Amino acid sequence: MVHTSRETHGVMVHTSRETHGVMVYLCSICDIDNLIMHIYNTLPILPKYNLNSKDEALFILFLTNVPPAQLICFSTATMAQKLVIIDTDAGIDDAQAIMMAVAAPSLQILGITCCFGNTDVDNVCQNVLLVLSVCEHTQIPVFQGAAGPLVGATKAFSDHFGTDGLGDVLEDRDPQWKEKLQREHAVNAMIRLVATNPKQVSLVALGPLTNLALAIRLDPSFQQNLKELVIMGGNMEGKGNVSLCGEFNFVMDPESAFIVLEEYLCPTRIASWEYCCRNKLEWEFFEKLINEDTPAGRFMKMITSKCWGYSKEAMLSKRDVYFGPGFVSYDAYAVAACIDSSVVTESIECAVRVELQGELCRGMMVLDQRNKLNKSHRVSVMKTCDLTKFRQLLMASLKQPCRK
Ligand SMILES: [Ca+2]
């Protein structure tokens, strides 16, 4: 009878092909009256419903003549959601990660802050606006942030995701993009949003950490009011992708990475480059992913179509040398950990520091597993990933647009 199910933080939706019915089980923190209103707003053509019970906050709703696909997509905006700010340098993997975040019913994205990185910050802003447009989540505010690192000139942008960050295949850029940005600077927005929601916001950092370093310089209490920080960046085995020992996000602004890892004392989780690569997925899965026949799927297929970073052949002489063949969507690992901490099955708890000197190691993250640095603050360095759950989150991210 039941052929589809999804479980997310106390919400379970079952639909049956025969009756086109849905059962919604709610945990005790949910506001049932708001949910009923929301279902009516989302599905205004509801023919009828029968409310069976509110006992113990268990709520079963039967609907008829509503396609299951619609039901699977209805919003859980009235649920208790995790508040999130995403800081990004929007390349292709950031686009994937943002899609995953906006698709997750358990997240409420307060804003997306932009930083230089994969491309210049103007392109990053445009890329974020475009991704939100594809997913029909243009209500999420986007803020422009740092255009370069704290110290020194901006390094040449990597062409890993094309010069525009999204694979150099987009022909029609939105001439009105600047008008769609918020006027407030990204760093001010981060400080304001966190101060307004103390100890409630998860900050997910997917690019160079410049905005985060600036935030703590402008407001030293910023990090104290964060619920948690999740970073994609750095390395844990001394293997580098843009330098011998350095990972891209940290190498683009080593001083900012240093400041963040020394001064952010909130709970911190790090998806290093090696973590992502060691938990790579099969290229066959990538093919399945980009062949989702949805606006998001078609968009992802287009932006990866000419990008060597998503080429099985091009990777043979690069990442594969260390880790063997596989497809890696770096930033999505950090968002997945934020959505569901059980996606990470093993972590290393230790102090870390970023090397700022040296010809070979500048920008490298060092793990202090023997506590030689005598740092009291320890972070959680992700080690292994539940790939089944990760695949599910990736697939859900491309089934968009989808109302939350
Ligand atoms: Ca990124």
TrEMBL record:
Residues 84-391 form the Inosine/uridine-preferring nucleoside hydrolase domain. This is Inosine/uridine-preferring nucleoside hydrolase domain-containing protein. It comes from Oncorhynchus tshawytscha. CDD domains: nuc_hydro_CeIAG. The gene is IMPDH2. One of its GO terms (molecular function) is hydrolase activity, hydrolyzing N-glycosyl compounds. InterPro entries: Inosine/uridine_hydrolase_dom, IUN_hydrolase, Ribo_hydro-like. It comes from the Eukaryota. Belongs to the IUNH family. PANTHER family: SI:CH211-201H21.5, SI:CH211-201H21.5-RELATED.
